Structure formats: structure tokens, C-alpha cells
């Protein structure tokens, strides 16, 4: 019996369901919404020209339409699926290096769904400056960031090519002296990198100049890459070590007394800055060997210094005045 109740008037029930769904869609489509959104405007220049300046890069649009479509459009804008675009038609017989134009925005510059109505468009007129393009060879400037590892330095650098072919606005290229490479990170490099060169780096896609007392960066095109060599060496320096103790070496059964006039000396060392910074006066072995001297008598003797490999004594070799005389026999 339950089965009969379910299948009774099945056609009428189906029609009722279809009507209910249709009414639901009708109600949704009749419920309208409004939004205001900011869109980035892309302006494409014709062949042989480039965009040098615009009065505005953003456009604020006021939209209305069915709420479900408005919600979908809002999500599409967040996902960058809605575009604001203006393609400048070809301009023939351009003789000026740069010139101004006014463009007018309409609905066809946006890819909104057909159900959406544009209520406002601010601004709907944009002032643009167009520049005529040319190609020119310009000197390359290497950009570096950071410093080598502690105790190392860039001793020299070399790069090739020294000039590259750049395509950009005529009036900008006339004033440009050089174009930068992408920034090369030299932070923490050591002499081990000498074996990994050359580094291949790209050219920046803009040129910066001072124009009308303002710093201006203009897009350009350059497809060349630069080979860069750096010669990394240990950083060298000079450091003075004061109060280095001078020791006296002689046989164990030495029968003479030795007196130094200079028991402590100052020592100037030259070499790797990294080693110098780690070295202390106590780490330096300085001594005079009197074993070969014929006592008694005064002597001026060179001070022998044991220093780490790679370091050298800067200036004159240190000396000390030595007095050698017979020891007094305390038993007498």
C-alpha cells in the first residue's frame, strides 16, 4: 500500500518539483547585489612604442547584478580572473620621441559576465605617455649584495660582455649611461667559489635615470646574460701584539746567569686577517737561544718567534739585549 501511495500521481509530483526549482532560481536571479572593486589596468602599446607613464594604474568599478553572479565575480576578482585591459591600436608615422594620449574605458575593456551591469567607472579616462622605441648598446654595471665570509674579500672582478643591446624609449636611452645586472648575492662566499665561476646573471628589465628632479624607472628589454668572475682571497692585515714574553733557552746544567734587558717585546705581524684576529700574545713563542754564546759578556741577540704558517713579521726582526755572567756560588 505504501508503494502505491508513493507512485500515485508521480507525474504531478515531478511537475511540482520542477516548478519549485524554477521558482527558486527565479527568486535568486531577482535578488540583486552591488559591489565596488579595484582592478589593475593593463595597457598594451602597439609595435614600436612603449608605455612610459599613466595617470592611473588602478580602476574602481561599481557593479550590480544577480547576487549569485555578484558573489562569483567577487571571487573571480580575488583570483585575478577578471581583467581590465586596453589595447592601443597601431599608430603610424610616429616622429616624436614621446607624446601623450587619452584613452577611454568602456565595458568591452573588462571580461565581466553578461549578467553584470557597470554602474560606475573611476576613472573612465586615462592620460598616458607613449615613447618611441629604439635599440642601443649600453655599458653593464654589476650589482652585488652582502659581504664575503669573515676573513675573505673580493680581490678583483671581471665580467663579459661589457656592453649589451637594450631596446627602450629613445629619450631614456639617450640619457642612460649603464644598465644594471640582477643583484648578485656574495654573502658568505669564500675562496672555494673561485672554482665555480663564471656566474651567469640576467640584466634588469628597467633603466633608472633622474628626470625632472625625480628618480624614474622605465621598462626596457634585454635578452643577454652576463658572465661574472670574482677572485676571492683571504683578507690580509697587520696587527701589533704587545707584551709578548721572551724566553731564554740554554742547557739544563748551564753555569751562567742570563739577564734580558727586554723581557717583553712588541711584535708586528702581517698575513691573514682571520688568523690575526684569532691570535693572542700568549700564543706566540718568542725566545733567545744562548747555548752557542761564549760567556761572559753582553750580546744583542735576535728573538726567534714561532708564529702560525702564513704570517710574517712586519718590519725589523725583534732583538733583545742579553747579559751573561757567572752565577754566584751560594755555598762560598
Automatic annotation (TrEMBL):
<dbReference type="InterPro" id="IPR053154">
    <property type="entry name" value="c-di-AMP_regulator"/>
</dbReference>
<dbReference type="InterPro" id="IPR012505">
    <property type="entry name" value="YbbR"/>
</dbReference>
<protein>
    <recommendedName>
        <fullName>YbbR-like protein</fullName>
    </recommendedName>
</protein>
<dbReference type="Pfam" id="PF07949">
    <property type="entry name" value="YbbR"/>
</dbReference>
